[in-house]
Write a structure and sequence with these properties.
With 67 residues, the chain is mostly helical. It contains two helices and no strands.
C-alpha cells in the first residue's frame, strides 16, 4: 500500500518583518544623516528584492500549472 498525503499550500509571499512604526523608530533614533540615508537605501533594496522574488515565483507557478 502506498499512501500519499497532500501537504497544505504555504503562503507564497515574503512576510513583512518590519512594520512602519518600527522603521520609524529606527530612523528617529539615528542622528547622522548619512546613516539614515544608508538605512533607507538598504530597506528599499530589500523591498525590491522581495517583490522580484515574489514575481519570479508567480511566473514559475504559472508555467508549472500550464505544463
Amino acid at each position: 500500500m502506498n499512501y500519499e498525503m497532500k501537504k497544505p499550500k504555504k503562503d507564497k509571499e515574503l512576510p513583512s518583518v518590519l512594520s512602519e512604526k518600527s522603521i520609524s523608530k529606527i530612523i528617529s533614533s539615528v542622528d547622522n544623516l548619512k546613516h539614515i540615508a544608508d538605512i533607507l537605501a538598504k530597506l528599499e533594496y530589500i523591498r525590491t528584492i522581495g517583490a522580484d522574488i515574489n514575481k519570479l515565483h508567480e511566473i514559475a507557478h504559472k508555467k508549472i500549472c500550464l505544463s
